[in-house]
Fold each of these.
Amino acid sequence: MHDQIFKNYTVKDRSNLIALLQDVQEIYGYLPENALLDVASFVGMPLASVYGVATFYNQFRLTPLGKNVIRICRGTACHVKNSNNILFALETELGINAGETTRDKLFTIETVACIGACSIAPVISINEEYYGRLAIKEIPKILKKYRIEGKKLSEQETQSVGA
Ligand code: FES
């Protein structure tokens, strides 16, 4: 099933496990269970051990990303400007913790070490857009914008499927 990935590997052993998992994640954006089963079989390891490796490294995701990825900076400049409270407000507003995706798949929250925009701390990014000097009271309005866009997109998808 994942022959296009495996064809790049001549040695079928665990020495290629990390590279294989990286390839799978590049294709899917996360590590789906059926791909992990194929990888386990390819490298000759039990599925539980492959899961063990996948969960050990935080570069790997076991669930798909939401349509909108919110990255909240936890770097020093943002930390001293209350990024903890911003994270808490985002988690409360969306009903998920950092590292999780909402049930409607609209939002994922991730924390990052430094977004590289310290001069506008505290800062979050949503997809490619940055929100600097962010105040907690602005969060509902910002999220609303993405909810409206998400609703429009799903309506368009529904219409194109029905057409
Ligand atoms: S510490 Fe937050 S952008 Fe650098």
Amino acid sequence: MFKTIIEDIKAVKRNDPAAKNYVEVLLCHTPLHAIMMHRFSHVINNIGIPILPRFISAINRFLTGVEIHPAAKIGKGFFIDHGTGVVIGETAEIGDNCVIFHNVTLGGTGKHIDKRHPTLGNNVLVGTGAILLGPIFIGNNVKIGADTTIIMKDVPSNCTVVGTPGQIVRLNGKKVRIKLKKAAYKHTNGIKDKLAWETK
Ligand SMILES: CC(C)(COP(=O)(O)OP(=O)(O)OC[C@H]1O[C@@H](n2cnc3c(N)ncnc32)[C@H](O)[C@@H]1OP(=O)(O)O)[C@@H](O)C(=O)NCCC(=O)NCCS
């Protein structure tokens, strides 16, 4: 857990041009505090301690405006900018070195059971106000523009998606305009299924 937190601290320095030094980051970067509290609540959630993880998550939301379910799996080097209004659901999975801005929702549609929330690959940026709903896969090295909506659609690796409904506007560095494909949502094992999906 401590190694992961150190990566999270480095992620603030890497991603936030306003971050002057590590002391300032540790004292003043509220979304980092939210991530740290999540790392702790996730560990005690995994141990199987009841109620306390959700209680910590509730306090976290009260203090930082960031709501992360204790069961959500988040990779190292995670960076949230500004933070307020971020919602990350119970079965969401986030790869390494991802960036999320304020008012992003990684939520469910209300129609699914078990795996209900998005799975993000590595190096994914999700712009402010973006809404990602359902058990969908977002590939590696993806940028999702501010105010983009992606509902029950998968996103391939190495692309940029913008708009409502989200469309691919950049793929492997080239400008394109491609509709997203319907989510292959029969997955229950998150990252493992994502790897299978990518190698299909
Ligand atoms: C999507 C984004 C990451 C840029 O990615 P990119 O791969 O460099 O994409 P480009 O800038 O080349 O834009 C590609 C096209 O999408 C359009 N576009 C970019 N972002 C968009 C958005 N959020 N909504 C709608 N269209 C958008 C561009 O105007 C461009 O259109 P064009 O092909 O007609 O010229 C960036 O625009 C963005 O939305 N970042 C979010 C940052 C954020 O949330 N900041 C909050 C700070 S407080």
